[in-house]
Amino acid sequence: xxxxSQSPSNKVTEKGKDVELRCDPISGxxxxxxxxxxxxxxxxFLIYFQxxxxxxxxxxxxxxxxxxxxxxSVSTLTIQRTQQEDSAVYLCASSTTSGRLSGNTIYxxxxxxxxxx
Amino acid sequence: SxxxxxxxxxxxxxxxxNATMNCSYKTSINNLQWYxxxxxxxxxxxxxxxxxxxxxxxxxxRVTLDTSKKSSSLLITASRAADTASYFCATMAQGGSEKLVxxxxxxxxxxx
Lengths: 117, 112
Description:
The structure holds two protein chains of two kinds.
Chain A: E1 5-7, E2 10-13, E3 19-24, E4 31-37, E5 43-50, E6 53-56, E7 65-69, E8 75-79, E9 88-95, H1 99-102, E10 107-108, E11 112-116
Parallel strand pairs in A: 2-11
Antiparallel strand pairs in A: 1-3, 3-8, 4-5, 4-9, 5-6, 7-8, 9-10, 9-11
Chain B: E1 5-7, E2 10-14, E3 19-24, E4 29-37, E5 43-50, E6 55-58, E7 61-66, E8 71-76, E9 85-93, E10 100-102, E11 106-111
Parallel strand pairs in B: 2-11
Antiparallel strand pairs in B: 1-3, 3-8, 4-5, 4-9, 6-7, 7-8, 9-10, 9-11
């Protein structure tokens, strides 16, 4: 696609329910990133994929959070038993190769706004 | 953990004035990037500067990098009301993970 696509754009869920957030990166981009941004705050790194593997998942806040990527393309971030503190914008980004080696630009999607009530 | 720290955290200027934002970081980096965010949604990449570069220009943007001081600055010249947004610096550390670590951001308001 033309850009990084995320769905849903907005999600309101009840505390304790599971949610899945989807990211469709730019076609051909091998690196994929998930970030979380709470209201008025900076971006918090969650996980990074290179192809289907996740070399760095150090930012996942707890074992309620998991992510997978299949076919080197679409990624899903799953939050189980959601809590109110999970409310945030979840941003996905992709790049052509690993940014460190090539310095390539990372392109962001518009984010999924999650509200846990 | 956040590596980049933008300074000031908020800046309000008049249209036509220049805006300078500073970013400090802690570890050795491969590159530093500046992003802009409108209305708390997706970030837009502005400019990337590699660790072996000292200055880079893109339109009304000028970025400098001083690796000895572990700092960078973003200058927006002849600002416009449309430049009103939050600006973030982000760094990719040498070695280790290839994640991009963001600062907390800086809110720029350009008054017409």
